[in-house]
C-alpha cells in the first residue's frame, strides 16, 4: 500500500530509534512541567518507612546464577534449531532426495535435542532445578486433653 | 514509517484504555464498581492519572547508581516497542517485512531483561533488587518454552517471516504462492483440501492440532514473560511493594508501565499471528455460503486492509482481556512453584512437542 525507500532493516532501525526518541522527548517535556524540590528525606531508599540498614548490593541466592547458566544452554539450542527448522521440511529438497533429506535431518536433530534433554535430566536429578524452601515446622506441643473430648461439642 | 507512527499511537491509546479496562474488569470480578468519578462511568480516569504522572517529580534516590537508574526505563520501553516492528497488521500493512521477522522479535524483546536488571540493581533498594532478580530468573526461564513453541510454528510454516506465516493460515495463500495447498489437520493423506475453505480450519492450531497444545504453552509462557499474574512475584505487592520499579516516579515510572502493557499487547499479537490466523477471518467458506470471503477483503484493497486490521486487533485485544481475567482469578505462584512449572513441566513438554511437530511436518508433505 505504502512505498518507501527504506530497506526492511532500515524500518527496524526506525522503530528502535523512534522508541528511544519518544522516551527522550517525553522525559524532556516532563522536565519542563514537573517540579524539582529534592530533600534528604525524599531521597532516602524506600523500605516501607524503616531506616535502611546497609546497602542492597550484597549477596543473593546462588540459584539465580544456576538458572541463568541452564538458560544460556537452552537458548543456544534454540538458536541452532531455527536454521534446521527452516530447511527441514523443504518440499523440493525432500522430494529431490527421495525422503533421505528428511530422515537424515530428523535423526541428526533428534540426537542433538536428545543430548540437551539428557543435560536437563542431569540437572534435574542433581537437584539444580529445585528451589530451597524453608522447612515447615511441625509443632511439638502435646495437649493433655484427649481428642475425643472435643467430639462432644462438635 | 507509517507503521511506526501507527503502532506508537495505537500503543498509547491502547494503554490508556487497557489500564481502565483492567480496573473495571477487576472491579466487576470482585463485585465492585471500579472508577466512577472522572468522566462518564470513569472513562477519563486513566487520562487524569496520565496528566498527573507527567507533572510528578522525578526522584532519584541518593544511594542509587544514577548511570544505571536513569536510562533503565528507556531501555525497557525501547526493547519492547522495537518488537512491534515486524508484526503484520493487515495483508499489506506492517513495519518491516524482513525475512528474519520472528527471530528478530525474540532477540530484541529479550533485551528488556537488561533494562530490568539495570533498574533493580541501580536502585540500590532491597525490594528493587529482589524484584529484579526474581523477574530476570522468571523471564529467562519461560523464554525456553516460548522459544521452543516458536520453533514448532516455524517447523510447520517453514518461514520466519510473520507475514508469510499469516498468509498460510487463510484463503489468500494462493495470492502469494501458486502451489499453495492446506489440508485438514495438515495430513495430506486424508485428501481433504481446505485452502479455499479457510477460516478456523486453516489456522495453525488446525493445520497441526499439536499446535493447540503449543498455543496453551505459549500463552502460559507469555504471561510469565510480561510479568503478569499468576506469575507476578517480581512485583508481588504484599511482599516487594512494586518490585524492580519501586524507586521510580513520574514519567520514568510511566514508561515502565507503558512497557508492561506494551508487552501484554505484543505477546497477544504474536499469539494470534502464530496460532490463531493473524488477520485472517475466523469464518470458513461453506459451499455457496462464502463466509470467509465476505468477512475478508482481497489483499491490497481497502476492504482487505480494514477487515484485516479488524480481525487482527480484535484477536489481540481478546487475548489481552483473557490475560486480565486470569490475573484476577488465579492466586500468585510461589518462586519454587514457578521454577518447577517452567523447568520440570513446560520445558520437557515443549521439547517433546518440537520432536512431534517435526514428524507432523513430514505428514504435511
From TrEMBL, chain A:
It catalyses: a quinone + NADH + 5 H(+)(in) = a quinol + NAD(+) + 4 H(+)(out). Its main location: membrane. It is found in: Cell membrane; Membrane. The chain crosses the membrane at residues 12-33, 64-89, 101-124. The keyword Transmembrane helix applies. Its EC number is 7.1.1.-. It is a multi-pass membrane protein. Pfam families: Oxidored_q4. Keywords: Cell membrane, Membrane, NAD, Quinone, Translocase, Transmembrane, Transmembrane helix, Transport. NDH-1 is composed of 14 different subunits. Subunits NuoA, H, J, K, L, M, N constitute the membrane sector of the complex. NDH-1 shuttles electrons from NADH, via FMN and iron-sulfur (Fe-S) centers, to quinones in the respiratory chain. The immediate electron acceptor for the enzyme in this species is believed to be a menaquinone. Couples the redox reaction to proton translocation (for every two electrons transferred, four hydrogen ions are translocated across the cytoplasmic membrane), and thus conserves the redox energy in a proton gradient. Belongs to the complex I subunit 3 family. This is NADH-quinone oxidoreductase subunit A. The gene is nuoA.
